[in-house]
Specification:
The protein is of the alpha+beta class. The protein has five helices and nine strands. The protein starts with a strand and ends with a strand.
Length: 159
C-alpha cells in the first residue's frame, strides 16, 4: 500500500497550472521544459491528457538505462533518476510506453512525486489529479487504465 497520483482525464481542462507549479517549484520559473508533467491534447476529441511518470509495473525505463542511473527509492516506493550518473542517452525515454520520462538534452527527467507532496495535485482546480492512498492492486489497475487511455490518444500533441 502507498500513495499515488490518480488521473481523471475527463476532468482535465488543459490549464497547465500543474506544469507551471512543477517547474516553478524546481527552478523558480514557469517553463514546460523544466516540468516533470506535460499536457497533451487530442484534437479530434478536444481531450487533455496529463502525462508524467506513472511508476509503471514493468519499469521499462529502469531496465533500459545502460548507466544504472535509474534507481528504486524504497522510502517513496518509486523509481528516480540519479542526475550524477545519467548521461542523457535517451534509452529510458525510448523505452517508456507512456512517455512519462524524457531527456532534456543533458539528463533524464521524471516525476519524483515532489518527495511525497506533489504540488501539481495541490493546484489542480478541476481535480483531474488526486493524491490518494491505494493498494498495490488498485495502483496497478490505475496504471493499466492510464496506459490504455494514452494509447487511445497516441497522436495527441503536446501543448
Amino acid at each position: 500500500m502507498g500513495n499515488a497520483i490518480v488521473i481523471d482525464i475527463d476532468q482535465c481542462i488543459g490549464c497547465e497550472l500543474c506544469v507551471d507549479v512543477c517547474s516553478g517549484s524546481r527552478t523558480g520559473r514557469c517553463s514546460s521544459l523544466d516540468s516533470r508533467i506535460r499536457i497533451r491534447r487530442d484534437e479530434p476529441s478536444a481531450a487533455f491528457i496529463p502525462v508524467f511518470c506513472l511508476q509503471c509495473i514493468e519499469h521499462s525505463c529502469y531496465d533500459a538505462c545502460p548507466e544504472e542511473a535509474i534507481y528504486y527509492d524504497s522510502g517513496l516506493s518509486i523509481y528516480r533518476v540519479d542526475s550524477k550518473k545519467c548521461t542523457g542517452c535517451g534509452a529510458c525515454e525510448d523505452a517508456c510506453a507512456y512517455k512519462g520520462i524524457f531527456v532534456d538534452g543533458v539528463c533524464a527527467r521524471k516525476c519524483d512525486l515532489c518527495d511525497g507532496r506533489p504540488v501539481c495535485v495541490e493546484v489542480c482546480i478541476p481535480k483531474a489529479l488526486r493524491w490518494t492512498h491505494v493498494s498495490e492492486e488498485e495502483r496497478k489497475a490505475c496504471v493499466t487504465h492510464q496506459l490504455d487511455v494514452l494509447r487511445d490518444f497516441k497522436n495527441a500533441a503536446e501543448i
